[in-house]
Design brief:
2 copies of one chain form a homodimer. Chain A has 2 domains: about 110 residues, Alpha-Beta Plaits (2-Layer Sandwich), CATH 3.30.70.580; about 140 residues, Alpha-Beta Plaits (2-Layer Sandwich). Chain A is α+β, with helices and mostly antiparallel strands. The longest helix of chain A is centred in the last third of the chain and has 14 residues. Chain A has 5 helices and 10 strands, in the order E-H-E-E-H-E-E-E-H-E-E-E-H-H-E. Chain A starts with a strand and ends with a strand. In chain A, strand 2 and strand 3 form a beta hairpin. In chain A, strands 1, 2, 3, 4, 5, 6, 7, 8, 9 and 10 form a 10-stranded mixed sheet that branches. The first copy, chain A, is globular and about 60 Å long.
Amino acid sequence: MKLLIELSYVGTNYCGYQVQQNGDTIQQRLNEAALSLFGFPCDVSGCSRTDSGVHARTYFATVCRKDTQNLECSIPLFRIPMAFNAHLPDDIAVRRALYVDSSFHPRYDVRSKTYRYRMLLKREREPFLAPYCWHVPYPTLPDAEQRMDRAAGLFCGKRDFSTFMAKGSKIEDPVRTVLSSRVFREDCELIFEICADGFLYHMVRIMAGTLIEVACGRMEPQSMTSLMEARDRELAGPTAPPCGLTLWDVQYGSPT
Amino acid sequence: MKLLIELSYVGTNYCGYQVQQNGDTIQQRLNEAALSLFGFPCDVSGCSRTDSGVHARTYFATVCRKDTQNLECSIPLFRIPMAFNAHLPDDIAVRRALYVDSSFHPRYDVRSKTYRYRMLLKREREPFLAPYCWHVPYPTLPDAEQRMDRAAGLFCGKRDFSTFMAKGSKIEDPVRTVLSSRVFREDCELIFEICADGFLYHMVRIMAGTLIEVACGRMEPQSMTSLMEARDRELAGPTAPPCGLTLWDVQYGSPT
């Protein structure tokens, strides 16, 4: 058995999820919290390698003893979140804990993930939203929302997404299946929501940057199809900043 | 003439509004932005001395030349906010600018100010709200919201608020007039909103700390009256943390 924890975090102050030599990471904080809580070194394994500055509303990680790769603890499951949180900073929260089979892998067993990219399309700044949104102060077309939603819809399907992959990524197979993709308004924000069986490096951020080109009229919604066929990163828009990106949901095959 | 600017800021990264020797402040940033924008040293004078870590949704400051105490500039008024913001970090935003008479004082001419104190009364953390809310994870009574609102209502009126003033404050007259005071729910937050002609040092934060005592049943709503009559800081609740406090609105006598 392993412990599966569900968490949320604000990525602003971290160099991404995965442990690295220079810089504070979510995984490092979880490792330290697990050691303090259980009293022995643990392996914490996450569902995704979120980039520096990217947030997660929903994130899953497994926790097990480093030596036995197993974990059953005496703390009742419902107490685990509070116990973990006592050893974590305010910008990371464990929400739930349950036991899963030792064969469960939080990353390889993911069936699909949903990301949201939040954008603020207006001249005025919103300091309270700044940590979570990309502020786009330059003019966009009056029907920007409809144009972006039309363009986003064209990302759906099983395709080669090389156009939306950061240059220099070492991925053998750039084919992914996008299950849903849309743009909608929530208060003063425009939200790009995309669900897929997997994502290439910087894929959502490059798509968001491209949608803003569509919003400004520098690209047409229907050009997304030829853009993807070209498999050329140069033709897509810029990579949108990490602050706007949130891992929104993670779907596992049943049973979890 | 002087320039009056309306702004918003997130106080998390600042040691309050007012310039001080050790630490970054909002006023310091505005001074620097004004110098960059106009090319001469300016006096920036604010409507309130918000504490370290306190936010402002609405804040007013006047800007004038240091030497002449006047300012009329060649930039059209509607361009001033964008021009200022180009010299300010993302957590400070100038929203509007207008000219006011040289005799106008952004602090002494305030008729009333409204503060909001945001609280999250549940076990679970909310990392995305953490910068703006006080998280109260311990148990409160089922009718906490109604109890807090009843207690808050008793703050209304012209009274000596010494009970809700930080010890050691050098205030000659601790009498203030509270024009409205209530607690209401907004999504998962409870909000304490208070409007008064002036506030004593830490007044809203001590009131918020006291309302949480009422929420937990350690104090009764109706005890607020005797609490205020006692004029004893020791009898009130703890000082709530600054992150939950936002200067929400500032009312001037007409015409502004």
